[in-house]
Amino acid sequence: MPRLKLEGSNPSPAGKGERPVFWTEAGGFQPTPIFAYELLHPGNVIEGPAVVEGEYTTLVVPPSMRFSMDDRSLGILEKK
After folding, report:
1. CA dihedral 4, 60, 17, 23 (to 10 degrees)
2. Phi, psi angles (nearest 5°) of residue 23
3. What is the β-pairing status of strands 28-36 and 50-53?
4. Phi-psi bin for 8: left (phi > 0), alpha (psi -120 to 50), beta?
5. Angstrom distance (rounded) from CA 45 to CA 55
6. Is the pTM of this model over 0.90?
7. Are 36 and 16 in contact (CB under 8 A)?
8. Strand, helix or coil at 67?
9. Sheet containing strand 45-47, strands side by side
10. Do 63 and 77 contact (CB within 8 A), yes or no?
């Protein structure tokens, strides 16, 4: 796979808005940002809590984790 140029950490162009999501860690529902996976770019970082929706899957990013796109446009979920 070819390596791509990292475009910065700001994922806001992939934002789809917000909706209430239940988080056990928060003790209930809280407004949560929603992102479109296909619109994320290499280098983008999403701090949890968040939801990343793709055409064939949905990724839940808990409050204690972050999701980032590497230089091959692969998503990485890791602890903060």
Report:
1. -150
2. -120, 120
3. parallel
4. left
5. 19
6. yes
7. yes
8. strand
9. 45-47, 65-69, 75-79
10. no
Q: Could you report how far apart the first and last alpha carbons of the chain are, in Å?
A: 27
CA 47 to chain centre: 7
The amino acid present at 4, given as its one-letter code, is: L
Taking the CA atoms of 53, 39, 29 and 63 in sequence, report the sign of the dihedral they define. Answer: positive
Running DSSP on this structure, what letter comes out for residue 49? Answer: S
28-74: per-residue pLDDT in tens?
Answer: 999 999 999 999 999 999 999 999 999 999 999 999 999 999 999 99
Residue identified by tokens 């899957």 is 57
The ranges assigned to domains in the chain are 12-79
> Tokens for 14?
């992939």
